[in-house]
Amino acid sequence: VAFRTVGGVLLAIASMLAGPWPATTPTFWRAFAVVIPNEVGGMLCLSAALSVGDVSVVQPIMGFIPLLTMVGGALLFGEHPSALAMLGILLVVLGLYFVGLRKGHSAMEPIRAFATSRASWIALLATLFWTVTSLTHKVGIAEVGPMPWATALTLGSAAALAVAIPVVARAAGGVGAPREIGSWMRVVVLAGISFAVQQFGLLNALRLTQTGYVLAVVSTSIVIATMVGVLVLREQGGSHRITGALLVSCGVALIAVFG
After folding, report:
1. Angle 201-223-259 (CA atoms, 0-180°, nearest 5)?
2. What is the pTM of this model?
3. Which residue, 113, 166, 177, 197, is most buried by CB atoms nearer than 10 A?
4. DSSP 116-146
5. Which of 25, 3, 2 has its CA nearest to residue 148?
6. Any idea of the CA torsion for 76, 248, 214, 4, to the nearest 10 degrees?
């Protein structure tokens, strides 16, 4: 809530400096009503998945987002994947299989683990939420432009999270509180600035080019997060998980460029 509020204020200032706020339309409000619960749902699910699973296991599952976006585009807009995009789908599936491999264990273990892993299923639910947001961004940007849409999305999701946190706290038995306010505020400000820059770049890129091309660049975070989990957090199964993350990213790139 805190860092999104900081980011939203920064985006609002940038939007006002860029020009007058555009008139909102019924289509904008419909897109806004769709994107906010899905944005919040995706963030809550990803946080829950990371709380019960390793970063290097959870993050590659985000590679399903471009895949599901491609399927959504086919269903909603009549877009059909090419042969190379289908190859990309196979690479995504193969990469997720490699993430679950462990040395000295059965080759069937990743399939059984994915079916029984709570973190994996929660992460998959997050991808479903964020697939909807990816498809909805184009609508919002077309109505009001990237900066006003980024501002509305960031501040709206911050408000929605503020409402959701008491419910989550009641279900989880409480939420954490910062030990040192000064250090916490510095982290919040840094995260807010980073989030504002990320939203500025993402939504302006979506205005200029196809969603698939943008997601191909975003997918590099899968490799980065997995390598951080293995190299920094010392999570086990490093070689298999890095291989899996690379395969997922290669598959995502094929889907994005040729889908």
Report:
1. 65
2. 0.74
3. 113
4. H-HHHHHHHHHHHHHHHHHHHHHHHHHHH-H
5. 25
6. 100
Count, residues in the chain: 259
Q: Which one-letter amino acid corresponds to residue 41?
A: G
> 65-95 burial by CB neighbour count: b if 16+ within 10 A, else e?
bbbbbbbbbeeeeebebeeebebbbebbeeb
> The tokens 């889908």 sit on which residue?
259
Q: What is the CB neighbour count within 10 angstroms for residue 26?
A: 8
Distance CA 157, CA 194 (A): 16
User: Do residues 131 and 138 touch, judged by C-beta distance below 8 A?
Assistant: no
Residue 112 makes CB contacts below 8 A (sequence gap 6+) with none
User: How far does the chain reach from its first CA to its final CA, in angstroms?
Assistant: 35
Q: What is the dihedral of CA 183, 184, 186, 190, to 10 degrees?
A: 140
Q: Tens-of-pLDDT digits for all 259 residues of the chain?
A: 788 899 999 999 988 888 888 888 999 999 999 999 999 899 888 888 888 877 666 766 777 777 787 778 778 777 677 788 778 777 877 776 776 666 666 666 666 666 677 888 898 899 999 889 988 988 899 899 889 999 999 999 999 988 887 777 776 666 666 677 788 888 889 989 988 888 888 788 777 766 665 665 566 566 666 667 666 666 665 667 777 777 877 877 787 677 6
